[in-house]
Design goal:
Length: about 400
């Protein structure tokens, strides 16, 4: 019976192609908008997730709270503190430095370029892998000896020296008031997507380079932050527990309360960003879904017209034995099929446009199969809901009056 009703519904759609298409247009736009917005939201969430995975989900840093009014020199971190914290937690800390960086400018005969110099330890490459194209990475001797050595990004080296292989070249940099001559001991390359480069602020205008973190002490070997990467084998719950344990240890080490320090983690930042994107996507998707209401009203309108046009058909079917329930199901099926077909067209249209945009900008577009099934199912429910009144009106027709209808 259901299959027969669906065949009749499809026949009715084919008989009035233009009218059916115009009726479905609201559903097509509504479902297409919801799919597109949901997909864009999921794609953005995936991209941000990839960015945080790239910078390290176990990355965190602890700093002195800005609310402390009586900050003491002993509140800042020292090299001894760095060693004590590492000894206390052992392998649970995969990497640690002072989160120190320096901005400066390098000028050569060929070019002048602004740089961000990041202070790192020798094993930073373990948590932030790069490809060393020429020379070597910073080693333990560079760090412990506070040697003015530098590992520079390849494109910046090319711009400054006319060659990527700038190993052995030197430049001068103002380090907290002292003019220091640095030597380039290595040139590295790290591939990132255009989206990652944009979001991370690496537009190419500012060069990137690594120098020993032990050089960036201000003043008297004091550091503002304790920057670390936890053991990557920890799961989310273990990582949260570890971060709190480390924060408590630092507070005790400094003779302060936990509230006197703040903890910022990549894990928390990613969760906040994911929640924000989810909320925005849901809100905008909800607004777009309003067009489904308009589409549903259009379906109700056209089904009322269809009921009027097929009054004699209804009377004939009832005279031949069709029950009120049969007529009701027939018109409900027709409205559901009309809406579901519109939903399928909307899904196909949105998926096609998103795929083309993704290929054009080399973006990994995310379209969840569950969302597609939900959208098509919801569009069918819209058709059923708005088809109830016309179907009930058709089912309640008196067969004798219907047969006399001209």
């Amino acid at each position: 019976m259901l299959i027969e009703n669906m065949k009749m519904a499809l026949s009715a759609l084919k008989a009035n192609k233009m009218r059916s298409f115009l009726t479905m247009l609201g559903i097509i736009i509504g479902i297409g908008s919801v799919i597109a917005i949901t997909s864009i939201g999921d794609t953005m969430r995936r991209m941000f997730s990839d960015i945080y995975k790239d910078v390290g989900l176990t990355q965190s840093f602890i700093g002195i709270s800005y609310q402390i009014e009586d900050t003491r020199d002993s509140d800042y971190f020292t090299m001894d503190d760095m060693t004590r914290i590492k000894d206390a937690f052992g392998d649970k800390i995969a990497y640690a430095d002072s989160e120190a960086y320096l901005s400066g400018e390098i000028q050569t005969r060929l070019s002048k370029k602004k740089f961000n110099f990041t202070g790192i330890d020798y094993n930073y490459i373990d948590v932030q892998p790069v490809t060393v194209k020429y020379g070597r990475y910073l080693n333990e001797s560079d760090i412990r000896g506070q040697k003015p050595n530098c590992v520079m990004e390849a494109s910046a080296a090319m711009e400054l020296y006319g060659t990527e292989n700038a190993v052995g070249r030197t430049f001068r940099l103002n380090v907290y008031g002292n003019i220091t001559e640095f030597q380039i001991v290595g040139v590295y390359e790290k591939e990132v997507s255009a989206f990652q480069a944009m979001m991370m602020g690496n537009s190419g205008e500012t060069g990137q380079a690594y120098i020993p973190w032990t050089l960036l002490t201000y003043p008297n070997d004091l550091f503002y932050y304790y920057h670390y990467y936890a053991d990557p084998s920890m799961d989310e719950a273990q990582l949260k527990t570890f971060n709190q344990e480390l924060l408590s240890y630092v507070a005790r080490l400094k003779g302060r309360s936990v509230s006197d320090f703040y903890l910022q983690t990549a894990q928390d930042e990613m969760s906040q960003m994911d929640s924000m994107l989810s909320g925005v996507s849901a809100a905008v998707g909800g607004i777009a879904a309003i067009s489904l209401l308009v589409g549903g009203i259009g379906i109700m309108n056209i089904m009322l017209v269809s009921v009027t046009e097929r009054t004699r058909e209804i009377g004939t079917r009832k005279a031949l034995g069709a029950t009120t329930r049969d007529i009701l199901i027939q018109f409900l099926t027709e409205s559901a099929v009309l809406s579901a077909v519109g939903g399928l067209i909307g899904v196909g249209l949105a998926s096609g446009i998103l795929s083309v945009i993704g290929m054009a900008f080399s973006l990994p577009v995310v379209i969840e199969p569950g969302i597609i099934l939900l959208a098509v199912g919801f569009s069918a429910l819209v058709g059923i809901f708005f088809g109830i009144y016309p179907a009930r009106k058709a089912a309640d027709r008196d067969p004798i009056i219907a047969l006399r209808y001209e």
